[in-house]
Amino acid sequence: MATGDLALGQEQGAISTQERVVNNFSINVATVNGSGSQSANSVLLKSIFGMGVPVSGKNLFPSNIAGLPTWYIIRASKDGYVARTREIEFLVALNPETAKSDVMALPAGAVAIYEENANLKQFRDDIFCYPVPFDKITAAVCPEAKLRKLVKNMVYVGVVAQLLSIDLGVVEASVKKQFAKKQKVFDLNFGAVKAGFDFAQEKLVKQDPFVIEKMNQTAGKIIIDGNAACGMGAVFAGVTVVAWYPITPSTSLIEATTDLLKKYRVTPEGKATFAVVQAEDELAAIGMVLGAGWAGARSMTSTSGPGISLMGEFAGLGYYAEIPGVIFDVQRTGPSTGMPTRTQQSDLLSTAFLSHGDTKHVLLLPGSVKECFEFGYEAFNLAERLQTPIFVLTDLDLGMNNWMSEPFAYPEKPLDRGKVLSKEELDKLGGFARYKDVDGDAIGYRTLPGTKHSKAAYFTRGSGHNSSAGYTEKPDEYQEVMERLSRKFDNARKLVPAPVVIKNGTSRVGFLAFGTTDFALGESLDQIKKEYNKDVDYMRIRAYPFAHEIHDFVASHERVYVVEQNRDAQLQSLLKLDLPADQVVKLRSILNYNGLPIDARTITEEFATKEGL
Amino acid sequence: MATQTPSPAPAPGPKINRIGLPIIDYRGGKSTLCAGCGHNAISERIIDAMYEMGVEPERVMKMSGIGCSSKSPAYFMSRSHSFNSVHGRMPSVSTGAILANHTNMLLGVSGDGDTASIGVGQFVHMMRRNLPMIYIIEDNGVYGLTKGQFSATADLGSKLKTGVINDLPAIDTCALAIQLGATFVGRSFSGDKKQLLSMLKAAIAHKGTVMLDVISPCVTFNDHEGSTKSYKFMQDHDEPVNEVGFVASFEDIEVDYDSGQVYEVEMHDGSSLRLRKLQEDYDPTNRANAVKTLMEAEANHEVLTGVFYIDTEKPTFTDQLNMVDEPLATLPESLTRPPKETLDQLMKALQ
Description:
The structure holds two protein chains of two kinds.
Chain A: H1 2-11, E1 21-22, E2 24-32, H2 37-50, E3 55-60, E4 69-77, E5 90-93, H3 96-104, E6 111-115, E7 128-132, H4 134-141, H5 148-163, H6 168-178, H7 183-203, E8 210-211, E9 222-225, H8 226-236, E10 241-244, H9 251-264, E11 275-278, H10 282-294, E12 299-303, H11 305-310, H12 312-321, E13 325-331, H13 348-352, E14 362-364, H14 369-386, E15 389-395, H15 396-400, E16 402-405, H16 423-429, E17 459-461, H17 475-495, E18 500-503, E19 509-514, H18 517-532, E20 537-541, E21 543-544, H19 548-555, E22 559-564, H20 570-578, H21 581-584, E23 587-591, H22 600-611
Parallel strand pairs in A: 1-8, 2-5, 5-6, 6-7, 10-11, 10-12, 12-13, 13-15, 14-15, 19-20, 19-22, 22-23
Antiparallel strand pairs in A: 2-4, 3-4, 9-16, 14-21, 18-20
Helix pairs in contact in A: 2-5, 2-6, 4-5, 4-7, 5-7, 6-7, 8-9, 8-14, 10-12, 18-22
Chain B: H1 38-53, E1 60-64, H2 68-71, E2 81-84, H3 90-100, E3 105-111, H4 112-116, H5 120-129, E4 133-139, E5 142-143, E6 149-150, H6 173-180, E7 184-189, H7 193-205, E8 209-215, H8 231-237, E9 238-240, E10 242-247, E11 262-266, E12 272-277, H9 287-299, E13 303-310, H10 317-320, H11 333-336, H12 340-349
Parallel strand pairs in B: 1-2, 1-3, 3-4, 4-8, 7-8, 9-13
Antiparallel strand pairs in B: 5-6, 7-13, 10-12, 11-12
């Protein structure tokens, strides 16, 4: 009986009345994948958001369709921290398979909510236990047996909401939003929330210190995942051709893009201003992107590590024949198949030099959902300006998880379609040489097939060519093109997103990082300040090739810690190739590559050890 | 009375086609292939067909992969954009290009290695999509640039110059294309000017994937005794299933023919493809029979040529995508970038 168990909490004299923990803890919902807990988790996340409390959600899921353990971790943080934390204080243990280990992992003083017959309290006497008869409650509100598995998830939302003092009205609004316009579905789901809430109110006595209190930190903010933000960026960049092959964790980027295209890019006559093709593999996807880019479309694909590997040969063609295209790489844990549903920042080196020969690529490295949107559209401008494939590297953590953000700003600048000669311009010029550096910026002019001018055509090839696009095996002609390509790449340093100085004071020590490492590093800076009274400078890198500010940052510090989420210190390796020899020795590494997003504590501890603090 | 001196007749201008272009506007650079290579003859027929059909050169996108065949787009139609891509990947690049601008026309030249070995994956999927494209395989059964290894279209039992015998069956690209959904499939021989020219003109008039396997002997590595892709072998074994006649929509030619002896196919642009029956009741609209006929011919060591299959009704890949009439490549920003209000709406929904 639930009430009996409540007494247990009171009997546990070991746990004295603690100070309340307000808006500063993580919730772990442990379920089985395929059980439909995603909507419930989303409602819980958005309810905390609705309470005005900064929140983030992480889905730790298996590479499987149904039946394996999955965890959804919600972090509420009054200080606005969104990184993963090592310790989780509030557990909803609904997966019998992992229940014991989930409970064992809790710190003392944590909370466990579980199906009453699981009897998890036998394993720990230093936590707060709330057994709940989920199946009974669910059966009472959901007569249809086959829906019960799904509806049960909403029951825990109600229980958690009541225990954490989340306003039921806020939860109701979140459920309403989740099931927009489907009244019946709403009724069923909110009924379950209410039943859970009522049960907790009537039968559970609050013992633990965790509460959510109203704040005003989320007003005007949005919640979105990085993949949807990238897709939105592409749509507002006017993408016209999308070719792709399904792969975790990038598939939802294409799905989001396609949904937006279908909604906002169809003419009143019902005609599409876009084409989306599910290709036969990643080789074909990148081939289509380059064919479309060559013929003048704004084209893109999205993939992850294994797809990047397959795209290698074409990436070199795009670089050498100078064809625009945008490739989103939502990085996952490698090498090989690796752990497809875990995160990593380990495609940096392979993407920067993707393909054989002297090939190098421009990489954009967004560090937030807002930058996913911004770089998502800027990538298309850069691709056409620089006439080259542009790679946007996010990762599973950013791409597939929900993040709070300022709303995205509309890109006011007109699209930059790059140097394309029209018929009229050809009339004036009388002709052109495709790969000639006319303007001194190492970028030639191109024409599009279909341009109605007898001198518009040129021959595109991945074989040796001269500045007029003619076939060549002549040493000087070949080298001239290669040198110009190198100058063009060097010029890109000034065109790509500049690094962001998070902090640059008087410290002799600095941090360099990119992408999602920022979430943990920002928190770690505060920990280092608080615990060691030490200020450390920090610059966040947002693109390759590296802007000169990055060289200056390294030059102005004695030691620079490069924090990244891969084993081989890939960002540091790229920096070493770029920096003068006397600067290279300043670089140190802090690495995390176990598949889980890096957390602040790991950085702080390793920094303290290495610095001898 | 003044004597009238007859004024000299005006010098005849250069011969021009229906859009006012002389044939020189369809020519390309000088071929660097071997003298006598079948590919050069195919380039000549492409030039003739494009000229005679009055295709605007600027509308044509010449595509290729890698190999001797794939070099050949440099040797015809210099006024057309050309894309010599990577080995076996011409189909995907072509797909992207036609999506960007579906008012252009795709002409692809591949080889048997480029198509049937390294490129068979993309070939298969392109056929499946019925992409509007003329896909020509210049088929000589060997890899030329790497000095004469067998390709996957080499016939079982055929012999290399080195004496090596091929002990694997050939991939019949025509049977494959028909089975997969290509809508105009035929085989010809680089040495048969008349048949190849008619087939190419009909190909230009067709809407959908045209897959033409053109036997094109390699004079350096596969034109010897024991080869099944030599000039001699083709002269001895070429068995046309039909005699290909083509009357373009703009031609005013009335030909009497016995309808019992000829399959007449009305093409998408109003042209007429007339296939005179040479083999007993060969029906080029029957897919299953087309594949059966090809398989039987293979068993009998015959090389069938002619138009094996045609379907003028099936929607193309670009039709199915329901795109606007204008090329996607040049749509104005007003049509491709949603307005600020749209982003505001989206942001509101995410709050």
